[in-house]
Amino acid sequence: MRYNHFKNADADISALTVGTWGIAGANSAGVTWGNVDTEESIAAIRQMIDNGVNMVDTAPIYGDGHSETVVGQALKDGYREKVYLATKFGSYISHYTGKSVRDNKYNSVEREIDESLARLQTDYIDFYIMHWPDENTPIEETMAVCNMLKKKGKIRYIGMSNSSKELIQEAQKYAKIDVIQPPFSIVNQSERELMEWAETQGIGTMTYGSLGGGILTGAIRELPKPDPKDMRQVFYPFFKEPVFSNVMELLKTLDKIAEAHNVPVAQVSINWSTQKSFVGTALTGVNTPAQADENCSAFEWQLNNEEIALIDSEIDRLNIG
């Protein structure tokens, strides 16, 4: 396993983070990643940790708290002490409307932290991350509650996800921002400039969508049938034309590189991301111990400059990312 230093947090974090959105099951709106097995999920999380991963990321909105509950179970038996734990606040699915709600108000966050701590069966959260901006709540108010929770020892570090540079800069007036969590992968480089700026600020980066909802593993080779309940199709644009066909064309290049190294395609995708200096840690979902071993084995080798250049040229040619 490789490790990177998060300057503001003064923490050495593994280049991979256990992402747990995919193990959440269905939320109250019925949107799902598919069938999940809790015992298998727990085993997969522990296998990632046994392989040197020291960050686990979750959120209360994932399966209406189910993901946090599973993570809490996985971190029993001494595993909590081996990891930095990240969860989020301010985003949930309304049981009344079935729609996403964003609420970063002081009182709401103060209530949420205790609910998350209970589900996670822990006394503190290492990285507490604002999941989405809330246009109805001043960032000063949100940072105030984070600072209060930090003073009380309920959280150690403050993070922001899905936030613009301007909002992060505004938040920095009121609190130390230790980490951001933007999307980043071969097929999505929309926040690259933000991440490069964060690196200059000592802000660690936790990238989500690192395997493009699974499309960068090479396991998906045919366009899925439209399904409004499939989280991949709801959240990611890669499972619709014409992007899907372009990604399939890109996979031909990734296939060749994977074959040359005798590794799975997912490892090519992981290395392309994590070899960037501005990527602190890449979130990858994992459903089985075998997947955990496969993902972590990516760090037994590296892409060379020519291979990275070849991938980048194909990204440009196909207008991906």
TrEMBL record:
Tell me the InterPro entries matching this sequence: AKR_Detox_Biosynth, NAD(P)_OxRdtase_dom_sf, NADP_OxRdtase_dom
The family database entries (Gene3D superfamilies) matched by this protein are listed as: NADP-dependent oxidoreductase domain
Q: Which UniProt keywords apply?
A: Oxidoreductase
Identify the residues that the record assigns to the NADP-dependent oxidoreductase domain, covering every copy: 24-313
Q: Which PANTHER family does the record match to this protein?
A: NAD(P)-LINKED OXIDOREDUCTASE SUPERFAMILY PROTEIN (PTHR43364:SF4), NADH-SPECIFIC METHYLGLYOXAL REDUCTASE-RELATED (PTHR43364)
This protein is called what? Aldo/keto reductase
Species whose genome carries this gene = Anaerostipes hadrus
Q: What is the lineage of its organism?
A: Bacteria, Bacillati, Bacillota, Clostridia, Lachnospirales
